[in-house]
Amino acid sequence: MKIELTFLRSKVARRIFGLFIFCALVPILALAFISFTQVTEQLHSQSQKRLHQSSKALGMSIIERLSFLENELRAFSSVFNASSKASPHRPTEEYNEHLKQRFKALALITDSGRCIPFFGHIDNPEEQSEQERQHLGSGKPLILTQSRGDNRFHIYMMRAVDHKTRIRESCVEK
Predict the structure, then answer these.
(1) Sign of the C-alpha dihedral computed for residues 66, 72, 75 and 76 taken in this order
(2) Sheet harboring 153-160: ordered strands across?
(3) Mean pLDDT of 88-111
């Protein structure tokens, strides 16, 4: 059985068929393109908002944790008052297990640069700049990052034990 396509043989029939295809497909393709670009832009905008929100939440979490660690370090360093004759080993007896859960290492660094470790191994951080020393002298903690040869960053939190006389600094590696 042979099917004849007689309706496309005339010139008018081909033009009507072409016009039908043009009128049916072109608007659909244009609408699909517009919808695709709008949906892409909306998804991109939503992903940017979610990234911003998650970054902000993570940043706030880090700040909260650093604040908590600062308070722990402040409580630890309060034992070392310049006027007291406290032994450097006294705080480790009281806080050793508690601090080991929070810090990788803890040491006391004197003004001369001598490092007195309490627990863990800590690499002595590089010499601080004048601006960093002023920041420590104001009683605020200082956070330093240093890259070592093993392609890892070491994060140090430092705090002047007695910021008025700047006698000692405590240093924590996390």
Answers:
(1) negative
(2) 115-119, 105-110, 168-173, 153-160, 142-147
(3) 69
Tell me if 7 is assigned to some domain: no
Kindly report the length of the chain. Answer: 174
Q: Is pLDDT above 70 for 109? A: yes
Q: Is residue 90 part of a domain?
A: yes
Cα–Cα distances (Å) from 104 to 21, 46, 117, 118, 164, in that order, read: 72, 39, 12, 11, 28
Query: What's the pLDDT at 171?
Result: 53
Side chain identity at 105, as an amino acid letter?
A: A
Instruction: Tell whether 61 is covered by a domain.
Output: yes
- Work out the average pLDDT over 119-138: 78
pLDDT of residue 86: 46
Domain count, the chain: 1
> What are the start-end ranges of the E strands in the chain?
105-110, 115-119, 142-147, 153-160, 168-173
Residue type, 159: R
Q: What CATH number does the domain containing 129 carry? A: 3.30.450
